């Protein structure tokens, strides 16, 4: 049998059976994996934030190119969005809207199930005169 190390949740310290790994994973990674699988309250908030940040990358970061969208140029905007989802995850704020450019808007809110919903909208107008 391979030697394993048990990852423990960063918040409650509980070792999780899902956090058992081969010895070649770093302790830090084992802890991260255990935290991502723990169901204590703090870990659930952390999981929400982690998945929301991943979605920010898909919708506005480098990941958006893959979906035919233009990535947001400013790294500061992405940082700000990451802070917004942290505030929503612990329910400090309920929702937020960020107008990034004249056409691109980001909306952040909490669904009834408690997940963080992120929406990117692009306004396009076509107008002809005369
Ligand atoms: Zn935990």
General description of the model:
The chain is α+β, with helices and mostly antiparallel strands. It is 35% helix and 25% strand. The protein folds into two domains: 4-37, no CATH class; 41-122, no CATH class. The protein has three helices and five strands. β3 and β4 (104-110) form a beta hairpin. The site of zinc ion has 7 residues, from loops. Zinc ion is lined by residues 9, 11-12, 14, 38, 40, 43.
Give the gist of this structure.
With 130 residues, the chain is α+β, with helices and mostly antiparallel strands. The protein contains three helices and five strands.
Q: How is the largest sheet built, in terms of strand order?
A: 3-4-5
Percent helix range: 25-40%
Q: How many strand elements? A: 5
Q: What molecules are bound to this protein?
A: zinc ion
Number of helices: 3
Q: From the helix content, strand content and strand pairing, which structural class follows?
A: alpha+beta
Model regions low in confidence, pLDDT < 50 over at least 5 residues: none
Biggest sheet overview: 3 strands, antiparallel
Computed CA radius of gyration, to the nearest angstrom: 19 Å
Give the total of domains. Answer: 2
| Amino-to-carboxy terminus distance | 79 Å
Could you spell the SSE succession in H and E letters? EEHHHEEE
Strand % is 15-25%
Oligomer description: single chain
